[in-house]
Structures are given as C-alpha cells and as structure tokens.
Design brief:
Two copies of one chain form a homodimer. Chain A is of the alpha/beta class and about 400 residues long. Chain A has helices at about 15-25, 45-55, 60-65, 70-85, 100-110, 125-130, 150-160, 185-195, 250-265, 270-280, 285-310, 335-345, 375-400; strands spanning about 30, 95, 115-120, 140-145, 150, 165-170, 200-205, 230-235, 245-250, 315, 325-330, 350, 350, 365-370. The first copy, chain A, starts with 15 loop residues before the first helix and ends with a helix.
Chain lengths: ~400, ~400
C-alpha cells in the first residue's frame, strides 16, 4: 500500500526535545532538555476552587461549543494586560488560541505560500520552525548578539531577498538563547518593517518572567501601521497544560486568523478559558508572577554559579535576565551531539543547539533549561556536565600534543 | 501597507453557521442553524466532582506540559471503545486531538499537496471543506442517496481522476444529511479503496447517537490494509466545549499525524483529557449515552412530525435514525438564501444547503439541526417555516397562472 503523504510529511522531523521528554519519563535522568515551567508555580488549589464555582454556577456554558474568537471576559483581561505594556487593542483585535504554538501554525496559514521567505533570529524557536515548515517557506536567518537581532544584519537580509512574508522574532529572553532585545533595536526593527513593508510576528511568551528592572515594551507597542502580530500565552504565567494563548493583530489581519482558527479546531477549550479568566479576576496575578520569578531567578542563579565554577574557560554561555533558557557555545571542535550521548550515559540531558537553526549547522551549541528542576538537581547536573566538558577540553589538548 | 496574505487567505470564507451562532447570541431567534448538543446532556455535576478530585490529588500533572500523543489512560479507554466497534488498535495507534476538527486539519497536513483530489460525499461537512481548503486540493463530489455514498459513483470518479489522495466520508448520520451508509456499501467502499489504493478518512462523530437497532460497524473495522484513518470525538458523548477527539490509524500514518500535531498546538488540554478519562472510569457511559439518545430522539420526532404536518408536499426531507441533523430539499425554483432572509424576519434560522457543496450549487437545499432546541421551540420554529414554505409554493403557483 502506498501512503501518498504530502511532500511536507518528509520535512517535519520528531522534536528532539519531545523525544527527550519521553525518555525522561522512564529514566532517572537530570534533563535540561525540556522547557517545563516549575510545577510549584501552578495555582492548583486556586483552580480547584475556581472549577468548583464554574461547574456549580455555569457548567453548561463551560462545556458547550463557543465562538472561535474566545471568551469575552478573558479577552478583556488580555486587553488590560497588553495595555500595561503599551499596546492599544480592543477585544475584537484578539483571538484566543490553543497555546501560543497555535498562533504560529495560524501565522503560517495566513501568510505563507511555497517559497515565501521567513526572516528569523539565528538561532530561533525549534517549534516555530516546525510550525512554519508545512507551508514550504524559505528560512533566512539573521544574526544576533547579546542585544538580540542586529538591525543592520536584518536590513542586509531584507535587501538580499524577495518574497519576504514576515520577520519572526522573540524579543524577550528568547528561546533558545535567553537574550533580550534592546530598546533601541526594538524601535529600529519596527522602523525597518515600516520602511520595507514587512509584517512582524512578535512571539512574546516569556516577557512576564523578568528577573531585572529592565522590563522593555514589546515591538507591538511601537507599531503605528498595524503590521505587528503579537502572540502570547498563559503557559508561563498560569500553566501550560491548559493550552491557552492569544494572538493580537489589526482587524484585517485578525479576521484571517479567526477564519483559519475555525477550520483548525473550531475554538479553544472553553472551560479552560473561563478558569483562567476567573483566576485573573479573583487573585493577585502580580503577586503570583513575582513568586514564580523568585523561583526561576534562584534556579538561574544556581545554574550560572555552578557553570562559572565548573565549566572550562573555553566554553561560553549567555546570562539571561529572564525566561527559562540559556545558551552554551562550545569550542568549535566539539560536537554537542557527541557530548549529549556521553552526558546521557552519566544521567544528564540537554538539547543540541543545531536543532534551533532552520538551515542547520552550529553543531557546537546547546540549550539548557533552568526552570523545570530543583536547585539541587541543577547543581548536580551542571557539575556532571562541567566535568565532562573539562575532560573534553583536556582530551583535545592531548590530541593536539600528540599531533 | 500591503498585508501579503497567502493565497489561501482568499479561499476560506466565514462559516455561515458560525456567523449565525453569533446572531443567535443577541437575538431571540429559533436557530436550527448550529450543531449544538443539548446542554441537558452535559455531565456537569459529575465533572465538578472529578475536577475536585483531580486537582486535589494530581493537580500539577493536569497543568503541566504533556506528550503530544495524549493521556495514556484516555487512549486505553479509546482502544476499548473502538474494540467494541470491531476496530483492533493499540494505544500507540491513537493520537488525542483538539476535537475531531483538528483531525481534519492534520489530515490535510499529512496528505494534501496543491491540486490533489479529495473525494467526498455530495454534500459534505462544511468545516471539513474549510479544514482541507488551506492545502489547495480539488474537491470531487460523489453522489449519495438514502443509503449514503454510492459505490458505483465512487468508482466512476476514481477512474475519472488522477492524484486522488483520500476519500473523506461520514458514514453515520452524516452532517449535513443525517444519512447512514448501509452495511453492504461500507464493505464495497473499503474494497474499492483496496482495489485502487486509496486512503479513507472516516469521520465518525455521531455513531453513538443511534436511535434505532441498526448500529453498523465503521469502515475501519473492515480495513485489512491499514488504509482507513478513523476520526472521532467526545463532543457528542460527553461535551464539545472541552475540544477532545482522536485519530486512529496504522503506525506509519499515525506517526505523521503526531509530528504535525506537535507543530500545531504541542498537545491537547491535558486537564480536559484527564477529566474525560475519569468520567469513563467512574460512571456508566452507556447509561449516559442512552439518556442523551432519548432526548435527541424525542427532538427528532418532534421535528419530523411537525414537518409532516406543516411542510407542503413539494418539499422533501431525510428521516435520520441518529445524529443531530436532517436535510431538506425544496422545489428547484426555491432558493434557500431568500428563504433564510424571510425566515429570519419571522424569527427562525437554518443553514443554506449550498454551503455543504465544496463546488457550490444546490441552492434549493437546507440543513436543520434538531439537537440544540427544546421540543416546544422545535415545533414552534418548524410551524413558522412550514407556513413560509406553503406561502412560497402558493406564490409560485399564482405566478405560473399569471404567466
């Protein structure tokens, strides 16, 4: 029997993060591979009360079909949240999605025809690559540094390429690097988008998880032409298992998202939308997020301090001021795939950095997650990695002497 | 500013059902337009207890990221449910989806390249058309009669067309016609698929809602070659607001669905999956469904009896033995769009039948839903429609006399 799959069925590969997640279910591995928020941050008891109340008073509504746009009360809350960030939007400019991931799938549907160019940071979010790939785009990577995407590099790539559909960017504590785009660059990049008539897909799941005083306004807040599509989620502020996120865009654009949402899953779980809306209405979300931040900040500190102590000086890494991830660059001669195999034998896992480059390469990089493990496990795991890395560096020097 | 949408953004139109749904929120209209299950059938009190238990004992798991394949306990329940229908599958052959609608979107992703042929019943499910359209297929409609899709017509269309990717069929109480495919035809159609090496997407959301003794096995139960992809949902047996459905297919095929699921929304709301699994474990689902059936059967009876009394003999309609819908064929000279405008002025809505034909036409048809309204409202609404139809027939005869 021939299966006759679409061409795209050959393009999308199993996510190594997910495959690792499966592994970590069965083995006693310290995994820096996933991107799991800390379970301690989930408002379990609050949700128990909220569920009880919704199902006592409003159960049939929670269980019935609902409009694709999403729960009106939740959209009003999002209007307020975005207003605090300087984004002016109305409830009709917002579509509730099944996680921010669905915002990416819908972005592909709305904008991408075969051969269209997607500009993105180099590296970029692995599952964004997989969300866009089914629509056969060409990925053009734009260089970044500690201050995020470099506007001059972006302009160069814009000039060099045709059929550019959008720039995909994660300005805050980017997945995978943990980098935060500077204020000047945010403005410069919106200016470039205006100048060259380009759409920006701004993916902003981590902005609330800010460990410093340097909270920056989203690119969307500088958008005067309705060309920035803003994606975010409750996965990092409430919990990811509910799969509730949102898209905000100009009326003309959001209407296309809504139409494709209908064909994709009709609407997002309505009970979950009601629960999150109720959580924001009844509880002090700022205090809740502050508590989350203090947990993540301690874990980041534990990771960075252990890395400084145990990683050889040949290995460099980012020092994120927020989010869930940091990024490690190994000496050119090292391969993170080989390292991963060795590390897993010693009970430690991470994600190879090459997975985050849509056009491949960069085998000497890796992503580490610091949100999902206790400080004790982080310290233990990083010490194992450090020992392994020192050994690798030592061996390479011996090899050089032998040659 | 140019928006640079993908070509597909022009193909997908607002669902008139959904737009009507919005209308019915604000007006006091009797709408036969939606496809809402009866709220009385939702196990609200049971779910209140279940939520309380899950969040007391297992809250963090309900709120955390989970594997794309879905909750293992729920997949075991599905294995059992399908086993009762004669489908032999293991948990690894099942993917939990965000409603059966997502199964359609993923089917498009897995199989359809531009220009590929989708064979479907004429008429077929409106939101399946919208789910497949983004992948630019060509729809080839196959004639049906009271016993469902006609195998001889299917064979003719198979021979006439190239690049056929799959047959999409709803064998039980089809949306929109309410027709049930006969046993002989089920076997004959699987035989044709084997003979011509074609995949079948069997969409089976309504099979549990059977009002007669004539429950028939799914096409998938006759599949000896792993070429039937089976889609179903808990929307009609538990509730639709949770958006939990599933796909079952051979290992090679289901693995492609899982990969695309990851890029689409990572996984389906995990708390909802746990709730449904717990509902099946703790309660007598057969008794629950029997109660649902008795409600729907009474409503169907109320609709059919009032139609027999009030519709003019020039109007014909199906008499479904299950599901949520029936199908009305008006005299050729009537246009259901004109009729809808007139009906809405009198406080009644339905969906124009033409929306269910991917290649258009059939302006003299309409779909009526009998599940979402009380018997009283059904009788009242059908009487208004009947009066309007008699008036239309009368007017046409006067016009003929004048000419």
């Amino acid at each position: 029997m021939s299966n006759n799959f679409a061409r795209r069925a050959e393009l999308v590969k199993a996510s190594e993060v997910r495959e690792l997640l499966k592994l970590t279910d069965v083995n006693e591995i310290i995994s820096f591979g996933g991107g799991l928020p800390a379970e301690e941050t989930f408002p379990v008891e609050e949700m128990r009360e909220i569920c009880n109340e919704i199902l006592s008073e409003n159960g049939a509504k929670a269980m019935q079909y609902a409009i694709s746009e999403g729960h009106i009360g939740l959209r009003q809350i999002i209007v307020r949240l975005m207003g605090e960030k300087g984004i002016i939007a109305g409830v009709d400019d917002i579509l509730i999605t099944s996680g921010s991931q669905q915002g990416l799938d819908l972005s592909g549907k709305v904008f991408l025809d075969e051969g269209d160019v997607v500009l993105c940071e180099s590296p970029t979010y692995l599952s964004a690559i997989n969300a866009f790939k089914p629509f056969y785009p060409k990925f053009v990577e734009v260089e970044m540094d500690e201050d995020g995407l470099i506007p001059e590099e972006l302009q160069k790539k814009i000039i060099e390429n045709r059929n550019i559909k959008f720039l995909y960017t994660i300005p805050d504590y980017q997945n995978p690097t943990g980098r935060q785009m500077s204020l000047e660059r945010r403005k410069a990049i919106v200016d470039l988008a205006n100048q060259y008539d380009i759409i920006i897909i701004e993916d902003n799941p981590y902005s609330e998880l800010c460990f410093s005083d340097n909270k920056l306004p989203p690119l969307k807040s500088f958008d005067t032409e309705g060309r920035v599509v803003y994606l975010s989620t409750f996965s990092k502020t409430v919990c990811p298992g509910y799969r509730v996120g949102w898209v905000s865009a100009s009326p003309e654009i959001i209407n296309k998202y809504i139409l494709f949402k209908q064909g994709t899953d009709l609407h997002t779980n309505f009970f979950a939308q009601m629960q999150i809306a109720s959580f924001f209405e009844k509880y002090d979300i700022k205090k809740h997020i502050e508590r989350n931040i203090s947990i993540y900040k301690s874990r980041r500190n534990a990771m960075l301090e252990t890395m400084k102590k145990t990683f050889p000086k040949e290995v460099s890494f980012t020092k994120p001021n927020g989010g869930l991830f940091l990024w490690v660059t190994l000496p050119e001669y090292m391969n993170s795939k080989d390292l991963l195999l060795k590390a897993m034998k010693k009970g430690v896992a991470f994600v190879q950095g090459s997975a985050f480059f849509p056009n491949g390469g960069h085998e000497n990089t890796m992503r580490l997650n610091f949100s999902g493990l206790t400080e004790e496990k982080i310290i233990g795991g990083i010490e194992i990695l450090g020992e392994l890395l020192r050994e690798e560096v030592r061996n390479s020097k011996i090899n050089v002497q032998i040659i």
